[in-house]
Design brief:
Order of helices and strands: EEEHHEEEEEHHEEHHHEEHHEEEHEH
CATH superfamily of the largest domain: PPM-type phosphatase domain
Strand content: 15-25%
CATH class of the largest domain: Alpha Beta
Helix content: 25-40%
Radius of gyration: 23 Å
CATH topology of the largest domain: Phosphatase 2c, domain 1
Low-confidence stretches: 272-289
């Protein structure tokens, strides 16, 4: 019997639009995990981080592929309990949740566990195969034959999740065991990758030999496509060598701030990190003749600083014109003195008439948390229209 291992490369990026990284990941010689958090008030990163930690702890206590399936199923319950405890301590965090996709290597088989719309692929003999099925509203339409995969990719409800780990609802986990062999290449990713670039692009990137280059090419492709969401990529080759390499945490699970906010969670240990180089900048200032110049510059800088401070404390909710979705902005709409802070998955056209008019006209929020709470209410209104399309003011659902 061949003793197989996983040689891996992993990376997580915030993307071009999101304010923080709610994705989390883990890679080791026998375990790959990706989780994509969701929820306002900076809660999604806690859900994904806790889930990754629960999965790693569960998988470390199992031997065979069949046994690890039961452990991974239990890990979903454990991560749900972590999430419930966090919400119980801060009701403002209600609504947080996460996806989960896991590949565990045991001898010549892999055990898989999956919830949500993060994906796992296998690249074998130059052919890419998706191993997971998205737990989304549009996937149910594809399964029923109502729409095609091409239509699903641009459907206004493509981001509506049907299953997620949220600490409130019992969740059904897709569990399976497959044979694997030397030379197989696995990709686990959040929808910040697979929801942005197509399968042909993914396959082209995976065809490159070097794993680090593969990860770079995949993330660069998502960045080139606009990177509207966090991007997390874990790529691993099945090899027969006995590999000595430390596991790695990426994304929200590697953030010490998130770990400190989850004191009950036992996070896995990593290898020692490579120290980051620190650029040292030396500024040499002249003598007395510079004082008047510096004073004038100081007055100008103070004025600019006060203006920037005022703008930094202005928030509003409106529509991101490129994709016609609800978004949060910092600044003021007038004169274009604002910046895009956070883009949601809510199509403006999916909102009831009153809320749709509101976001197109924009409305102010006192702070970022108030803006995120407003977006959460809009999401509930949009979801209500999906569940009860006859509600007055709701738009027709295009299928």
């Amino acid at each position: 019997m061949t003793n197989l291992s996983l040689r891996f490369a992993a990376r997580s990026e915030i993307g071009k639009v999101r304010r923080n990284n709610e994705d989390a990941g883990y890679a080791a010689t026998d375990l790959l995990v990706v989780a994509d958090g969701m929820g306002g008030h900076e809660a999604g990163e806690l859900a994904s981080a806790a889930t990754v930690a629960a999965v790693v702890a569960a998988a470390s206590n199992s031997a065979g592929a069949d046994e690890v399936l039961h452990q991974l199923s239990d890990a979903v319950v454990t991560s749900g309990e972590y999430i419930a405890d966090v919400v119980a301590g801060n009701r403002d965090l209600a609504g947080m949740g996460t996806t989960m996709t896991v590949v565990a290597l045991r001898e010549e088989r892999i055990a898989m566990a999956h919830v949500g719309d993060s994906r796992a692929y296998v690249y074998r003999d130059g052919v890419l195969q998706q191993m997971t099925k998205d737990h989304t509203f549009v996937q149910t339409l594809v399964d029923s034959g109502e729409i095609t995969l091409e239509q699903a990719a641009v459907h206004p409800r493509r981001n509506l999740m049907m299953r997620a780990i949220d600490g409130i609802h019992a969740v059904e986990v897709d569990l399976s065991v497959r044979e694997t062999r030397e030379g197989d290449r696995y990709l686990l990713c959040s929808d910040g990758l697979c929801g942005v670039i197509d399968a042909n692009t993914i396959s082209d990137c995976l065809s490159q030999e070097d794993l680090t280059q593969v990860v770079t090419l995949l993330i660069d492709a998502a960045m080139l496509a606009g990177a509207p969401d966090n991007i997390t990529v874990v790529v691993a080759d099945v090899v027969s060598d006995a590999i000595e390499i430390d596991p790695v945490l990426i994304g929200s699970a590697a953030d010490s701030t998130n770990q400190s906010r989850l004191p009950a969670v036992d996070f896995p240990e990593e290898g020692e990190s490579t120290p980051k180089a620190i650029d040292q900048i030396v500024l040499e200032v002249g003598r007395n003749w510079l004082a008047p110049v510096l004073a004038t510059i100081g007055v100008i800088a103070l004025s600019i600083g006060m203006t920037l401070w005022w703008l930094a404390n202005q928030w509003f909710v409106g529509v991101y014109e490129k994709t016609d979705v609800v978004a949060i902005f910092q600044g003021v709409p007038a004169g274009g003195m604002y910046r895009l802070v956070e883009i949601s998955n809510i199509e403006a056209a999916s909102l009831p008439d009153f809320e749709r008019d509101q976001v197109y006209q924009t409305f102010e929020s006192g702070d970022l948390e108030s803006a995120e709470a407003a977006v959460k209410r809009l999401e509930l209104s949009a979801n209500l229209c999906v569940l009860t399309p006859t509600t007055p003011g709701c738009p027709e659902i295009v299928q």
